[in-house]
Amino acid sequence: MQRVESGIKGLDEITGGFPQSKSILVTGDAGSGKTIFALQFARSSCLQNKKTFYISSEEDENDLHIQADNFGWDLQVLKKDGFLDFLELSELNAQLTETEINIGVESLKGNFAQIIQEIPSDVEVVVIDSLGSHSTKLTADEFRDRFALLIFELKKRGLTAMIVLESSTSKEFNEMALFTVYGALHLMKRENPYTGRRERVLDIVKMRSTDTPIEFIPYQIGSDGIFIYSYEEI
Ligand SMILES: Nc1ncnc2c1ncn2[C@@H]1O[C@H](COP(=O)(O)OP(=O)(O)O)[C@@H](O)[C@H]1O
Ligand SMILES: [Mg+2]
Q1: Structural domains in the chain (count)
Q2: Which position among 3, 95, 109, 112 has the lowest Cβ density within 10 Å, counted as fewest Cβ atoms?
Q3: What is the CATH number of the domain that holds 60?
Q4: How far apart are the first and last CA of the chain?
């Protein structure tokens, strides 16, 4: 199976990279580093010469550039070179609302498949950061169907995808999403039982066709972004 490197030092040594043309779910509390992870992956995929499309629902493009600049990642250059493009979902939401008003179709709410139509045809890697705000008004059945459809459409187009799911999304939605995707990572903070200090750890919840450790993997956010420092020990 071909892989796309996540760009997270240490993680690719553990997983061999993300399975190409598959969808990976990233979950975690606010401030756990999901957006940094998503930006780091987007940059990494661009550096692997893959045309990458970053769909943002929370932050506008300018804020993402500011966050990336903090880590020394010049995403403007990648954009200029045609490897990276952004879509602010708030713009799409505005369009959606207008459409809803015009034709009175309530069922358009949280229509994830609509997102797919916005992805240019030559794109190879997609990052969706994040889905939560799009799904708050959905019932569990609606969420399950639409999420499954989103994954199906991504797969049909052969896209490698990272989908960030907001922590505020219900446990029920999370579990449904988890069943549908090829792989899933969960970012969290916990108290280290030995040192008593709080640390960031990630859990590779699942990754099909990949030998993954059962242990939590400690990670840090440093001046170069997210890195895993002790993967040799795992
Ligand atoms: N340069 C940095 N060095 C260390 N930690 C940072 C740096 N920049 C941001 N952080 C940490 O990352 C968090 C934000 O990460 P972010 O990816 O935006 O979280 P979220 O999971 O909510 O998307 C901040 O709360 C801060 O703890
Ligand atoms: Mg975020």
Answers
A1: 1
A2: 95
A3: 3.40.50.300
A4: 23
Ligand 1 centroid to residue 97 C-alpha, Å = 32
Q: What is the pLDDT of residue 168?
A: 78
Residue 55 per-residue DSSP state: E
Alpha carbon of 166 to ligand 2 centroid (Å): 8
- Give the pair of three-digit tokens for residue 91: 């713009």
Structure-block tokens of residue 227: 């890195």
Taking only the tens place, the pLDDT of each residue in 125-145 is 999 999 875 666 778 888 898
Q: What atom in ligand 1 is closest to the CA of residue 129?
A: 23
Q: Which residues contact 162 (CB under 8 A, 6 or more apart)?
A: 18, 23, 24, 26, 37, 38, 41, 125, 126, 127, 128, 129
Is 27's pLDDT higher than 90?
yes
Q: Which residues line ligand 1 (CB under 6 A)?
A: 28, 30-36, 70, 221-223
pLDDT band at 193 (very low <50, low <70, confident <90, very high): confident
Name the closest-CA residue to atom 1, ligand 1.
Answer: 223
- Distance (angstroms) between ligand 1 centre and the Cα of 12 equals 21
Residue 134 belongs to domain spanning: 3-233
Q: What is this structure's pTM?
A: 0.93
All residues with CB under 5 Å from ion ligand 2: 34-35
